[in-house]
Predict the 3D structure of the following.
Amino acid sequence: MVFKPHQRLHLGAEAEVWSGQWFGRPAVRKQRRPRSWRHPNLDHRLGVRRMISEARLLIRTRKAGLSVPSVWDLDYEGGQLIIEHLGGRPLIDVLNDSATTQKQAQSILYMVGGAVRRLHRVATTHGDLSSNNILVEEDTIHLIDFGLASIEYDVERFGIDLHVLDEILGASHPQWKGAIDWVIEGYLAAEEELGPAPVLQGGAIPSASEVHARLEDIRTRVRYHG
Ligand SMILES: Nc1ncnc2c1ncn2[C@@H]1O[C@H](COP(=O)(O)OP(=O)(O)O)[C@@H](O)[C@H]1O
Ligand SMILES: [Mg+2]
């Protein structure tokens, strides 16, 4: 066994996550957990598919220059994924820390918006943009947990990605009023910086302002239909 476990970081429904060492380097092991209510064969197939998808999208987005963990090993039969351990603190801790100033929160959420836009520009939605799945390390935002990520071109999927973050900021961090607005500012500014939304193999990526408009539509829909 080359992974030397050090500390359990998280026991989720889908995976058990440990920090440790991989050939002497700080690493994270995600071990898929069997879900007893599903048929074992089906369960294994679904779990394997997710893990391969997570590894594939981490590799793809890292190649595109995003700050996501490197993939070091994938044992899909054994349901294990070994990735680079990234530094920084989860956004949830930063936003819940009473020492965090409004100015800091604003600048971090602006950078988060930029990181999400960079992800979207490579035709990828995260699928689970909670404040647990975003790490803040000084001026760098790392995105982790690509288990629900997917390749998309439809504006609705990008809008939903932002909406998940919007709901979490409102529900878990209500003390930061206007938090989503700072995210959106950063999301739109990234496009200013990087140029028009790219056209890739699978089609055109919706522009940042199209995604923003769609987020507003989704919010209205949710408000009226629950
Ligand atoms: N590459 C990593 N670097 C640092 N911490 C990580 C890394 N991957 C996961 N973690 C920590 O472990 C937690 C659970 O991992 P995650 O990939 O989100 O699994 P789950 O699918 O169970 O949510 C994260 O919220 C984070 O605190
Ligand atoms: Mg997670």
